[in-house]
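Dear U.,

Please find below the material for section 3 of the report. The protein was modelled together with adenosine-5'-diphosphate; I have listed the sequence and SMILES used, followed by the predicted complex structure.
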Amino acid sequence: MASFREICFTPTEFANLAKVGKDTVHELEANGLLKTIKKRVGNVDRKMVTLEDMQSYFRSIRSVATATAAEASAPVTMGDGAEAAGPAMPAVNNLAQTLARTGFVAHAPKHKIQMFYNVKGGTGKSTLTAQYVMRAAMLGLNVLAIDLDGQGHLTVNLDVLDAHERPTVYDVLINDLPMSEAIMNVAPGLDLVPANLGLCNIEIPLNQKTRREYRLSEAIKKIAHRYDLIVADTNPAASILNGSMLVAGDLVNVVCATNPLSFHGMSLVMATIETMEQEFGRQLDVRIVPNMYDNREVISQEVLGELRSQFEGCCTRAVVNRSADLNEATKRRSTVWDVNPRGAAAQDMSTLTEELLYG
Ligand SMILES: Nc1ncnc2c1ncn2[C@@H]1O[C@H](COP(=O)(O)OP(=O)(O)O)[C@@H](O)[C@H]1O
Ligand SMILES: [Mg+2]
């Protein structure tokens, strides 16, 4: 059992995640694009890719892809300065350029500030937020997760167990603590603003603050330049704190469990988002993420069908199936890749992550 910080991947798992052939791994190593370590498993030393090595790989391919795209669009200049202006990266070579051209998404996430939202509890917000931020960090993005629920489920899912001693968004919004001082590192490429029970008491003091709904947005703006992606997990209520995140965010990922009550609550969720948009002059992109889908259950199929027809254009193509792996990942406070890298939950989370980042 490994925490996310210590997670390692076999060459086959790495190849699947990087969408390269298993045979390419040797070539990537030979070209200096990928580092591996030897790790003792039982009696044998096995070749493994650490989280940091995976992140470095994705970062170098991304910078090669960006440089290749810039080169392709730059006007051809001849003369002494041309060479000096070229990309100064050791990783630039034919193999990397080939990989960069084969559909690797190099641009920044389409929406930098995102939130997982639903006024109903138990739909899977905290679970999906945790898996999403870890998956995005695996891709070499610099990610900040923000826990806006006093229950602190995202915090626990990210294996932080001493949050009661740490500052939270309460201190930022009520006591004017700079956001940077509430941020902690949980793993390479992944920071967190944790939550604890004290955050449950924020509504009354926040209500008394001037520009209350703008305070979170202003705090996030000050640290946003440090990150590629900022993702908040919200509390299951139409609270001022959640409203503040609707003011701060670009994309709202509404997690809807594929059951009748969750579907029933969707009209209220969409109406709340619309009211906030009108009140604060914001235009939010909204994605509805169907979760806990079970294709053996007629009711699950019906709810998914209704979601897709009633909220056409909002529903993600990706559907997260009901899977014990997600519960197990919660229990282990780790990722579904640690639990079962070849399982449906790992596949669903990869597809969902790509869609929410770039789709
Ligand atoms: N796709 C899924 N398959 C199986 N269990 C899930 C799935 N998504 C979430 N869960 C489980 O459902 C429970 C509630 O999820 P949680 O993320 O805490 O919901 P919320 O944050 O919306 O209140 C947790 O025990 C979690 O492990
Ligand atoms: Mg939650």
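For the text of the report, you could mention the following: The chain has 18 helices and ten strands.

Regards,
Y.
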